[in-house]
Amino acid sequence: MSVYDERREELEKHEFMMGKARGQLAVTLDVLTDALVLVGQHGVYCHSARQPGKPAMDVQLITKAITDAKELISGVMGELKTRSA
Fold first, then answer.
1. pTM confidence score
2. Where does residue 19 fall: left (phi above 0), alpha (psi -120 to 50 degrees), or beta otherwise?
């Protein structure tokens, strides 16, 4: 099943409020936030042997990549908002 089908209601709501492009980006941020939550939960159980108290290196890298992606998407959303104003 396509993400457009799975998240149809969310997409319609956000696209109505923000326009098509920004609405889809907002839903994308929600998906990435959900992924961060799941990675964070995994990090609780998967600790680094080299750095006690920190998640394993792969979990740290995944968290950084998702956080960076969210920052980039937020930047694009801001740029689209500026252009439409």
1. 0.85
2. left
Q: Is residue 13 part of a domain?
A: no
Q: What is the pLDDT of residue 62?
A: 94
Let me know: does 61 contact 39? Beta carbons within 8 Å: no
**Whole domain around residue 51: which residue ranges?**
47-76
Q: Tell me which long-range contacts 34-38 makes (C-beta under 8 A, separation of at least 24).
A: 35/66, 36/63, 36/66, 36/67, 36/70
- 9 domain-assigned: no
Interacting residues of 17 by C-beta distance below 8 A, sequence separation 6+: 23
pLDDT digits (tens, 9 = 90+) for 31-83: 999 999 999 988 888 877 788 888 888 899 999 999 999 999 999 999 998 98
In-domain check, residue 14: no
> How many domains does one find in the chain?
1
For position 69, what pLDDT does the model report? 97
